[in-house]
Design brief:
- The complex is a heterodimer of chains A (about 325) and B (about 325).
- Chain A has one domain: ABC transporter involved in vitamin B12 uptake, BtuC, CATH 1.10.3470.
- Helices cover about 75% and strands about 0% of the residues of chain A.
- Chain A contains 15 helices and two strands.
- Chain A is globular.
- Chain B has about 325 residues and is α/β, with parallel strands linked by helices.
- Chain B folds into two domains: about 180 residues, Response regulator (Rossmann fold, 3-Layer(aba) Sandwich), CATH 3.40.50.2300; about 130 residues, 3-Layer(aba) Sandwich (Rossmann fold), CATH 3.40.50.
- Classes of the chains: A mainly alpha (about 325), B alpha/beta (about 325).
- At the A-B interface, helix 3 of A face strand 7, helix 7, helix 8 and helix 9 of B.
């Protein structure tokens, strides 16, 4: 039991984050202060929410590269809506961003399910389409902070029991996803479909349908994050969150979610995101050249993938080794 | 929007056809050709051009341009201006090379041709009026910070990417003149890569690393907005002043909240005014465009030309609480 815990990806990541925090503290002592850690958690909240959605997609042997574009489009739509109707209640904005994101996710899911196009191609295409639509609806103009209503901007930063609402939303999503993955038929289906699609079909699962729902959930979470992002940074334009989809995939990979599908956990995705979040927040304060910053982020991802590859190998091959030995 | 643009274009075309009949013999007709009609920045430049025309008295401004930002559209517009025999063309080009042949044809007909804002290759114009120069921008960004730090203090630079040519040139020019600002210390230069979230995080990092930081200079429009938001969220308004280069429409919120005392960018009204003055003076023979020479531009002083026959109008224009209302809807 203890051995299993020590070798689990989650424990490894917690330890890695701990070591990282100690290292950073030697150069910048106040980094590990509780208030600053709360800041880091809050800053990483969008990445955690997106990583959880991405995890479900990757579990089913797919990938969603359109999450950042989905986020940007939803963000632009709700921002423009806010400018047009400043009185719109935040609850409506939240519901709308979830729905809009889900619709975009469904588009991905339908293309993968019904037309059988490889997910990487589908989402690369929709990623470009979503960015294009932002340009069309906004005409390339920015929505600026003074145009947004105060309530619209205040919601994610509002303080609730010491933490901003943005952090609480991330916590709620983590809890809901944990429950969903462990306790619902669909959650279990994601594992089954990715682990062995043939076996999944024989047990009566529709592989395409499961993938469709994974894309839909990922899209809905991206849409939700779209509003939170735009409100937090108080600006919406075509290029917001440019390249963020790769960070989301990186968080999943670091969190031990197998790109080959079937293996992963909510905890892994969250810790992978936090690992990246700690690095991203620490680099500005520890005075490292911007060129090294990129190299460091890349190295962290490579190490994670290497560890992943080592842990998923073994098995099966042992038999071959035995067979080889007598010869 | 598109319909409005079409109507505008049609009106502009109608106006240009009607113009020759109405024109008096002693009226100097100056065409202000912009990248596209319906852009706030250029509407403001046209306002400046009109101001120059009113000041000069005998000038008629023809404000025109294509409906979308294409070189082809501008070539058509310029061809029709040549046919009308205007006295001068001042163009902000959609492409530096594509317009050269048609502008050369205009010059062959004795029309004065200058470019402004976005330049044309040297062989296609008599001179180019740039809004500002690297040296002037470099001095302006540190001046903006120093203006609010009479007793000196710590400032940090939040730039775009570490390899961005424009920003690096401006920061180098700024460091050149740091000797004129004793007491002001540049403690760090960080890079937000023109991403809102990274710039925000870098600004947060600056405030943590340098608790006594007095100002953040961001010579990039994404960075300055993100830094202002980070300062506002950190509750540091009044302690850290965000300044640099930004657009009034994007910075109006930061000026309102006090996160930014002032920032700078070129003033389109001045630019349209200066271009008109130069076009007038060249076409009337009051000045000639030659390397090292200078051309008067009314209230904006004089522009001095370099070897490529281009010159800088002035320091970037400073925007603060006193004039942000006027400009926030323009560009």
């Amino acid at each position: 039991m203890l051995k299993r815990l020590a070798s689990s990806r989650e424990a490894l990541l917690v330890a890695a984050i701990g070591v990282l925090l100690v290292l950073i503290s030697t150069r910048f002592p106040t980094f590990a202060a509780p208030s600053n850690l709360a800041n880091v958690f809050n800053d990483t909240a969008p990445l955690m929410i997106l990583a959880i959605g991405q995890m479900m997609v990757i579990l089913t042997r797919c990938i969603d590269l359109s999450v950042a574009a989905n986020l940007a489009l939803t963000g632009m739509v709700v921002a423009m809506l806010n400018v047009a109707m400043p009185g719109l209640p935040i609850a409506v904005t939240l519901g709308l961003s979830l729905a809009l994101g889900a619709v975009m996710g469904m588009a991905n899911g339908l293309l993968v399910w019904k037309l059988d196009i490889p997910p990487i191609v589908v989402t690369l295409g929709t990623m470009t389409i979503f960015r294009g639509i932002i340009f069309v609806i906004s005409g390339g103009d920015w929505v600026n902070s003074h145009e947004m209503s105060a309530a619209f901007k205040a919601f994610p930063r509002a303080d609730l029991a010491g933490l901003p609402v943005l952090s609480w939303i991330a916590i709620a999503v983590i809890a809901a996803a944990g429950l969903f993955m462990a306790r619902t038929a669909l959650g279990r289906a994601f594992f089954a479909v990715g682990g062995n699609p043939n076996a999944a079909v024989y047990t009566g699962l529709d592989v395409g349908r499961s993938q469709f729902w994974a894309f839909t959930i990922s899209g809905a979470l991206a849409g939700l994050t779209g509003y939170l992002w735009v409100a937090r940074y108080a600006v919406a334009y075509v290029d917001i969150a440019g390249g963020f989809e790769l960070e989301v995939v990186a968080a999943c990979v670091i969190g031990g979610i197998s790109i080959a599908g079937g293996i992963g956990s909510v905890g892994g995705a969250v810790l992978g995101a936090l690992f990246l979040g700690v690095i991203k927040n620490a680099l500005p304060v520890v005075n490292i050249s911007p060129f090294w910053q990129l190299a460091i982020s890349g190295t962290a991802i490579l190490i994670a993938v290497a560890v992943n590859a080592r842990s998923t190998r073994s098995k099966g091959r042992i038999i071959l080794k035995r067979a080889e030995q007598p010869a | 929007m598109r319909v409005a643009k079409r109507i505008l274009a049609t009106l502009a075309a109608a106006a240009t056809f009607a113009a020759p009949a109405m024109a008096q013999d002693d009226t100097v007709r100056i065409a202000l050709v912009v990248k596209a009609l319906g852009i706030g920045f250029f509407e403001a430049a046209a306002e400046g051009a009109q101001e120059a025309a009113d000041e000069l008295g005998n000038v008629e401004i023809i404000y025109t341009g294509p409906t979308d930002t294409t070189a082809e559209g501008q070539i058509e517009v310029i061809n029709s201006l040549i046919a009308q025999g205007v006295d001068a063309i001042a163009v902000s080009a959609n492409d530096p090379d594509a317009l050269v042949p048609v502008l050369q044809r205009a010059m062959d007909r004795g029309i004065t041709v200058i470019s402004w804002d976005s330049g044309v290759a040297p062989e296609g114009r008599q001179m180019h009026l740039a809004p500002s120069s690297d040296a002037l921008i470099g001095r302006m960004i540190i001046q903006l910070a120093a203006d609010h730090l009479p007793d000196g203090g710590q400032v940090a630079v939040l730039s775009a990417s570490a390899t961005a040519t424009n920003q690096n040139t401006w920061i180098a020019e700024m460091n050149e003149v740091m000797g004129d600002y004793p007491g002001i210390e540049v403690v760090a230069t960080v890079y937000g890569d023109d991403l809102a979230d990274k710039s925000y995080r870098e600004a947060q990092g600056l405030m943590q690393s340098y608790p006594d930081l007095d100002a953040i200079i961001a010579p990039t429009s994404v960075g300055i907005v993100a830094a202002a938001q980070a300062v506002e969220d950190a509750g540091m308004i009044g302690q850290v002043n965000v300044t640099g280069l930004g657009l009034p429409s994007e910075m109006a919120g930061a000026i309102e909240s006090g996160a930014s005392q002032s920032f700078a960018i070129w003033n389109p009204i001045d630019l349209g005014y200066a271009a008109t003055m130069i076009a007038y003076n060249l076409s009337q023979g009051n000045a000639t465009a030659e390397a090292g020479g200078s051309i008067p531009m009314g209230r904006m002083g004089e522009v001095t030309l370099d070897d490529t026959m281009s010159g800088a109008m002035s320091d970037p224009f400073v925007y603060d609480a006193s004039n942000i209302e006027q400009f926030r809807d323009i560009f």
